[in-house]
Amino acid sequence: MSEEDSSLDRRSFVKLAGGAAASVTIAGCSGNGGDTPTEGGDDGGDTPTPTEESDGGDGGDGMDTATPTETEAGTATDEPVEEFPVTITQGQPPSTLDPHDHRETPTDTVVLHAYEGVLARSPGGEIFENLATSFERVEPGVVRFDIREGVQFHNGDDLTPRDVAYSVNRIVDGSVGFESPQSDQLAGVTGASVVDGERAVEVESDGLNPVVFSLFANYCDVMQRSWVRADDTEPATQMNGTGPFQLSSYEEGVQVVFERFDGYWDDPAEVTELTFLGASEASTRVNQLLEGETDIVVNVPPQEISRLSNSDAASVAAEASTRIIYNGMRYDVEPFSDPQFRRAMNYAVDLNSIIENVLQTFGDPTGQPTLEGFVGHNPDVEPYEYDPDQAEQLVSESGFEGAEIELHTPNGRYLRDFEIAQAVVEQIDSLSNVSCEVNQRDFGALAGELTDGDITTSPHFYLIGWGNATFDASQTIIPLLTSDGAVSSYSNEEVDTMMDNAQSEDDREERDSILQELNALLHDQAPWIFLNRQYSVYGSSERIDWTPRADERIDAYAISPAE
Amino acid sequence: MTTVSLGRFLLKRAVQGLFVVWGVVTVVFLLRFITPGDPVTFIAPLDASQELRRQIAAELGLNRPIYVQYLDYLWGLVWGDMGYSYISNTEAGARVFARLPATIELAVAATVVAVVLSIPLGVVSATRRHQPVDYGATLFSLVGISTPNFWLGIMLVLVLAVQFGFFPTSQRGIGFLPAIGQTLAQFDVGFVVGRLLELQLFDVWKYLTELPVTTWLAHITLPAITLGTYFTALITRLTRSGMLEELGEAYIRASRAKGLPESLVRYKHALRNTLAPVVTVVGLQLGTLIGGAVITEAVFAWPGLGTELIRAINLRDWPIIQGSLIVIGAGFVIVNTLVDALQAYLDPRVVAD
Q1: Smallest CA–CA separation between B220 and chain A, in Å?
Q2: CA distance A14 to chain B (A)
Q3: Nearest CA to A117 among A148, A142, A156, A74?
């Protein structure tokens, strides 16, 4: 974080960074037809799907910057308004209130109002200290967090380093409490311990783990050890965090109500009461917003945009997400085993036309697995040009003329996924020497085949989305494009070696350079048809001042009344 | 009809019902094995090793022979245990039964709407045959039966909630019993009477609209109409045709010939005999509504069993899918058994048959 940032309080920082994150407000833009991410849609749904996997990081060493809250300006903010209730409607209610026992974006969005991590991210992805006051790499596999003083849990007890260490171990060590489904989100981390006599915690990793700070900026909410272990505690239905909101009431599967936590270590939130609702139907959510029954709704489909834009009560806000949509091609089966054929598929697809006509511009073209703004993104790599003649020639050179291929796709999981797949199939099928068909699949079944750890059960050619909230190339490339990747469709020794080199490189610039080179290689090898970066499209009430984030979180701490 | 024969009849029905529920349980249990999507995938971390996946499968009991899983499941059900949902982090039975009141409430409200509207409409339509009211009722029936309820729900919300703001667009607001309890606890008779005497009608209206029971009523009205419209149309047609048939019977002519008042002929004789099939259909439909409110619940974000079932299916949350389907099936059987009992009471020939 830069020095000038440190003159702001944390809430202002979060808000301003959001504004600087190039969010696109499109109120006034007319919606025209199109389709919708249906329930579960691109808000992450409710499953441990590839789209919700993430990790990565900036790979940087610790920075002992002054935290924003330690500044004069940080304590001299305006008095919070008296009553400012806010309601947020997601596609579904949270499945649990235990921050370590789920893998869903909607649940994350809810629990992160009561729980916090040692580090956090601005809406643009910048890491800053939260419950830690500083962080540094002590040695290659060990990092240290100095823990903030004066932080209280909602039950009035003070935060201790022991709580932080316990929270890390609760996720990565099955013997501590339970088998957390988030263990892979702290990839490489093996455990944590309190530094003797100091208000600090050391976290150990297996190997260098260059992305460890990035992981802690996204994951590992801190829980109170004694509270979790108490006999009468049920973390799935009760909450006791250090966050700016404390649980007021919880109706399982229906709604969660928070009230502002006045003992918060930083400035209290301006929102006094925060309610989370779930409505699976997009039109229901939009109706709620238009009627003033809610203030923010997720996943506004294109055909609903004009209703919001024409309303005086609400508007549409869109933000490029951290999710890439692509067509995986299995490297071990013909014709996709041939790089020329795979490149041909990329040339055959008119990506700009898809973004303009299918997505109504709610998407950015991609030409590499790493999104713009991520560590390792190569700015010199452009998306493939639409060139059907080149595509036909490459198919011919590959020797797979007359190939018949079938694209497996979910329907309704991502913004206009099926329509994107149809367009891709139509464009490939229009080549004179390839025929292509679309196969609409149940998302659960398709995701199951892709994530079962066995490449041979995966379809040869499929459309899927991948969210990587850690803003680091590694956490897309490792799981999806290395030989041992959990959801990999590709194997290439050169890629594996370069990735290993990047993961053992502790110089940030050098690592960034290796990753950029790797992205260029992957562009050339074309293991995927690189499609679009997905946008998150929200509706928000005019009574609130709020900016969407790239990581799909909705942070009510950054909401204030509209002026 | 003797009490003994009625008792035997009901016992027989109950035993039959048990077998039906057993059949439902068996089919629902087996469904899991023919449906794509492995629950382990939804629970395991993405980088889970095959060993960890096997461990999770073992923890879920999925590695045992099917018949062992089946018997274990049946035994659990006997004790009210529908299994634990690792995906939803909850006991499946607790989750399903927590959702059930909202669905029953909606199904009963839809039935009340249907019965209250349809029987008078059917009677009037039959007794004023070929008059405007008959044509109106027939047209309503046709439209009601032909209109998909998801479309009707969306239209009602757009017009009555979004456009005019008469009703909330969605959600349940408050449950029926809490609404009644809170209303009784806070209702101030003195205030209402006092304002009425002072002719402060707006104050009274405002007071009434803020009562919990009004909140409940406001939230349930549109879903109940949406769910009940098809049903209303169906019962209207049934009542009309039944009444027409009965009114043409010889005993009706005899009743009229001996000078009985027309109202007595219509409502005591013809209507009563018309009601037997109507009761059957109402019962069957109530069972259907419990299981069939899925779309309406989705449109109104109604936190009932239908919404839960869709969520569970999307997640392959089998304990909850199975629990929901079993409860829906059992509900259908219970309602039908009760309808049989009512039929037996209304028409002793049912028992004799």
Answers
A1: 15
A2: 30
A3: A148
| Percent of chain A's residues with pLDDT above 90 | 55
Residue A47 to chain B, least CA–CA distance (Å): 6
For A148, residues 6+ apart whose C-beta sits below 8 A from its C-beta are: A129, A130, A131, A132, A133, A159, A265
State whether B161 and A284 contact (CB < 8 Å).
Answer: no
Residue of B44, B299, B314 with shortest CB distance to A284 = B299
End-to-end Cα spacing for chain B: 12
The string of DSSP letters for A15-84 reads HHHHHHTT-EE-TTPPP-S-----TTTTTTTTS--GGG-------PPP--PPPGGGSHHHH-PPPPPS--
Hey, are the CB atoms on A278 and B301 less than 8 Å from each other? yes
Write phi, then psi, for A504 (nearest 5 degrees). -110, 10
Least reliable range by pLDDT among A276-280, A439-443, B109-113, B343-347: B343-347
Per residue in A480-508, pLDDT (tens digit) is 999 888 788 899 999 999 999 998 888 88
pLDDT one-digit tens code per residue, A20-30: 332 222 222 22
Say yes or no for a CB contact (<8 Å) between B49 and A447.
Answer: no
Query: What are the tokens at A200?
Result: 């600090």
Task: Supply the DSSP string of A173-241, one letter for each residue.
Answer: -TTTSS--TTGGGGTTEEEEEEPTTSSEEEEEESS--TTHHHHHHHS-----HHHHHSTT--TTT----
List the Cα angle A121/A298/A124 in 5-degree steps.
20
Residue A51, pLDDT above cutoff 70: no
| Residues A58, A475: Cα–Cα separation, whole Å | 11
Q: Determine contact, residues B56/B44, Cβ cutoff 8 Å.
A: yes
> Model confidence at A422, in pLDDT bands (50, 70, 90)?
very high
Identify the residue whose tokens are 């049920």. A234
CB contact under 8 A, A48 and B41: yes
Answer yes or no: do A47 and B88 touch at CB < 8 A: no
A303 vs A22, more confident: A303
Segment holding A273, helix H or strand E = strand A273-278
Q: Which whole number is the average pLDDT over B224-234?
A: 92
- pLDDT category at B2 given cuts 50, 70, 90 is low
A453 and B49 within 8 Å at the Cβ level: the answer is: yes
User: In B, which residues are within 8 Å of A469 by CB distance?
Assistant: none
* Chain A, nearest residue to B56 by Cα: A179
Helix (H) or strand (E) holding A406: strand A403-410
Least confident of A41-50, A122-131, A363-372, A378-387: A41-50
Report whether pLDDT(A129) > 50.
yes
Q: Please state the separation of Cα B188 from the chain's center in Å.
A: 33
pTM reported for the whole predicted model:
0.79
Inform me whether the pLDDT recorded for A38 exceeds 70: no
ipTM confidence score:
0.79
DSSP 8-state class, residue A164:
H
Q: Which two tokens stand for residue A388?
A: 């059907």
Residue B283: pLDDT above 90? Answer: no
A417–chain B nearest CA distance, Å = 17
Contact residues, chain A, for B156 at CB < 8 Å: none
Q: How far apart are CA A39 and CA A388, in angstroms?
A: 36
* Option in B300, B303, B315 nearest A284 (CB): B300
Query: Could B37 and A281 be called an inter-chain contact, meaning their C-beta atoms sit closer than 8 Å?
Result: no
Helix A508-525 crosses helix A339-348 at what angle (to 10 degrees)?
Answer: 90
The C-alpha atoms of residue A126 and residue A16 are separated, in whole angstroms, by 12
Find out whether A345 and A428 touch, Cβ atoms under 8 Å: yes
pLDDT of amino acid A412: 74
Q: How far apart are CA B95 and CA B80, in angstroms?
A: 13
A392 closest CA partner among A425, A361, A432: A432
